[in-house]
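Format notes (please read before filing issues)

Several people have asked whether sequences and structure tokens are stored in separate files. They are not. Every record keeps both together, in the order shown below: the sequence lines, then the token lines. Line labels are part of the format and must not be stripped during preprocessing.
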Amino acid sequence: MGKFDLEVEPTKTRAVEFGRFAVRNAKARGAKSATFDFPGFTHYCGVSRNGKGFRMKRVTARKKFTAKPRAFKEWLKKARTLATEELRETAEAKFRGHYAYCGVTDNMPGIKRFAAEVEKLLFKWLNRRGERNSLSWAEFWTMLDRFALPKPKSRVTMFGVSVKAEIMWHRRETGRKQRKQTSACGIGRNRSTRQKENPARLACERGQLSV
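Then the structure lines:
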């Protein structure tokens, strides 16, 4: 870092034990394994799906999770008088934006919590359009069925493509290139098609034309 005249900010920097044995070592001390936030996610030590290998996992950081519903609430307080379709379109864009950023591997619980909190806010502030408590939960769910909002969904994988998928892709690409080369050489096509394209080649194949 000194080579590029960079310095570490001491108030924002700390060394933490992290990795395959961090959880075991923390339990031996009677403590929880360390976590760190970056950028907008809390990273923590986890295990793979088979329960054996180490895997770093992420969940929406507390600050970000608190800030997003609060910002949605402030927008909704001002926008609740909009026509339902116009309000839905803007709300849908906000949902999609949140899922696009926070919808990463292992963070499904985080984006589901966001969706649940925002749905509560929608119910509360749409209920204040007219007479208080004029909208029941049953009517609210019916409205959401009609004006559907995006469902929580992971958009980004943090572990790339699986080895099996990579092998299958290369096999398909290799087969496609081989078929293309075969087609360019005239192999595999019927005789009438090859004769129309190159009658001299066909005559040569029959021994009727000397080269």
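For reference, the curators noted about this record: Strands lie at 36-37, 41-47, 54-60. The radius of gyration is 30 Å.
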